[in-house]
Structure formats: structure tokens, C-alpha cells
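testing teh design pipeline on a random one, pls ignore if ur not involved
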């Protein structure tokens, strides 16, 4: 982990992660993305934040353990979602569909 001067504030990181989790649970109807796409992006950021929380030098060992456990649960959910989203058969996406993703 980098030195403390370049380490994000632990409370801000925790508060931001909780806000992201709330947004994931209740996606905004005004969002410019479909709820599933928004949740996918939020899930990835939540996992990233939980990773940094579990390794944060200024957080107690007990809270780091909680962050580690929660990180594992969110990461497992991401892996399961990724497997479910993979098409097992059917036509390949068109160029237009691919370009809409970028």
C-alpha cells in the first residue's frame, strides 16, 4: 500500500462505498444507463473500494476483515453474474450492437 499521504481517507472511502451500495440497491430512474448496466458498473467500483478498504493501513484489523469478507461476497456475485451473462449459443452481436457498448 502507498504511504499514508497518498492513501485515501478511510472514512471517505467507507462512506463512498456505502453510497455506491445504496445506489446499486436502488438505481436512479433518471440514470442515463439501463439499471442493469448501472448496477454492473457500480458493482465493479464497490469491489474496488472494498479491496482498498481491506488493505487500508489506518483501518482496524477487525474492520479490514469485515471489508475482506464483504469483498469476497461481492466478487463472487460478480463472477456469477459474468457467467450468467455469457451467451451459451445464438448469433454473435452485430457491429452496431458492439459499438453501442463502447
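output:
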Amino acid at each position: 500500500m502507498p504511504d499514508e499521504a497518498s492513501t485515501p481517507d478511510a472514512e471517505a472511502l467507507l462512506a463512498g462505498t456505502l453510497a455506491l451500495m445504496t445506489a446499486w440497491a436502488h438505481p436512479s430512474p433518471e440514470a442515463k444507463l439501463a439499471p442493469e448496466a448501472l448496477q454492473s458498473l457500480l458493482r465493479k467500483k464497490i469491489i474496488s473500494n472494498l479491496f482498498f478498504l481491506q488493505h487500508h493501513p489506518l483501518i482496524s484489523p477487525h474492520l479490514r476483515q469485515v471489508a475482506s469478507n464483504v469483498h469476497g461476497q461481492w466478487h463472487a456475485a460478480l463472477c456469477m453474474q459474468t457467467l450468467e451473462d455469457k451467451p451459451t449459443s445464438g448469433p454473435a452481436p452485430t457491429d452496431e450492437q458492439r459499438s453501442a457498448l463502447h
